[in-house]
Amino acid sequence: MHAVTNSLLCWGLCLGSALAQSFPIKDKPITLVVPFTAGGPTDRLARDMAEALRKPLGGATVVVENALGAGGAIATQKVARAAPDGHTLLIHHIGMATMPALMRKPMFDVLTDFDYLGMIHEVPMTIVGRSSLPANDYKQLSAWVTSQKDKVNLGNAGVGSASHLCGLLWQAATRTEMTTIQYKGVSMAMTDLLGGQIDVLCDQTTNTLTYIESQKIKAYAVTSNKRLSQTALKDLPTLQEAGLKGFQVSVWHGVYAPKGLSSETKTKLYAALRSVFSDPGFIQKQEALGAVMIIDKRTDPVEHKKFVTAEIAKWTPIIKAAGVYAD
Ligand code: ASP
What we know:
Layout: H1 2-20, E1 30-34, H2 41-53, E2 62-66, H3 73-80, E3 88-92, H4 95-102, E4 114-130, H5 138-148, E5 153-156, H6 162-174, E6 179-182, H7 186-194, E7 200-204, H8 205-213, E8 217-222, E9 250-258, H9 263-277, H10 280-288, E10 292-293, H11 301-322
Helix pairs in contact: 4-11
The structure holds aspartic acid.
């Protein structure tokens, strides 16, 4: 009887103290889950965020976890199933909008399984090649790719990644079929491009710019609407100028939590994130690599979700028409 009373008492007190724990929970780290390998653009963004978030979260420990595989779906599923206490966050890109169409059996619903926490930045992509490629401009690259047929090795970060999407669109627009080599993040694809094991890659400036500047790889074109201003990129044509009508891809990033954050946690997290995204030091790091901070209404969680909904509607027919699926 005594034991029952004690355990009932403990149950009440323990539940009470668990409910009373406010965000961030003392001594519990905050984990930023990244869907791709360390050293790539998503990882780099998350590591910059982890460093900058510590202060606005009162000195909390913020760590990055690379949950690899299935072009981002493993990490997304992991966060969808995590406790909604604000301690597990997903840093993901345009893949949030392309995964629903790419997966035969989705393990989560990107629109209903998450609390949206606002968008971060957008990054243009570049078509780059190994330094030993014979082509010196986009026209020559295009002729070389056509002449080589499926012997051209095109890297990407897995089905569902931004580099995969860009590669698909590029092959469709040029009516070519390259041999696709999949990695678990573009940092690995870049290693093989630098080593000459693969021929070409379409990836974000946040991954390619420094290698283009040091001439370790060749750059051929950008996927933005306008030419870019960085010295090493300013002479590159847009793919539209190079004759690929309507070709435009920009890789946007956002922050997501498992659905069910308390409103107090959501408010605190959102405020901490916004203070990071408006920090001049953080902005400078992102812009130096060609990223453009999002400062419009999409920084708001409701508008972020509306934007992702619109992007799903935009990319789904394009992906279905290309007939690709992740298993
Ligand atoms: N952003 C890359 C992609 O989607 C993946 C990565 O960050 O490694 O291709």
